[in-house]
Amino acid sequence: MEKEDLSCIDCYKVTCDSQDFPYPDFCQTVKYDGIVEEAVKLLKDDAENSRLAMAAAQVEGNFYCKLTRVEETVKFAEKIGAKKLGIATCAGTIREARIFAKILRKNGFEVIGEACKVGNRDKTEIGIDDKDKIHPDCYEPMCNPILQAKILNEEKTDLNVMMGLCVGHDALFIKYSDAPVTVLFTKDRVMGHNAVMPLYLTESYYRKLL
Predict the structure, then answer these.
(1) Residues of 90-112 as b/e, b for ≥16 C-beta within 10 angstroms?
(2) What pTM was estimated for this model as a whole?
(3) The predicted structure's pLDDT at residue 18
């Protein structure tokens, strides 16, 4: 690859996490030094950004390797002063969403959750061919992440938590959510929602990926 095509994923020094200077000659910290300053300024001077960044850093620093992501999400919501939390869940993980909502309510939050099938409209209404359904020739409600976001916007949530939304549906939910969004877990039907597992197995069972 040409040097101009290299980025952080091609760096084996990770100077930005260690200060093992000098930086590699393709380092993004050097290449985009002007944007670095702009981003730091946005973290410092924008009140909303600062509130989220400070809370995230405090949760990381105070509970590093001590709390699960469920617990960290609770702590993060507390630190940003959130009172009303929205859950955007896959219909297939509604049981997990109920359990998480129970945990949040036990910790004093108001919670509202929206499943992906809310609105209950067939996939063909947005142009999906019947043959591309999971079960062709049957009624099959579409996932509607835009509607999930818009309902939570109407409810004026302070923080929204995504639970198991499909690839792409998650992108649409984030795009339309007024409140900040964090992810409790991602969808991976094959791996039991442990989406990173195939990356660990690229030298064995999942070498087909390479």
Answers:
(1) beebbebbeebbeebeeeebebb
(2) 0.93
(3) 87
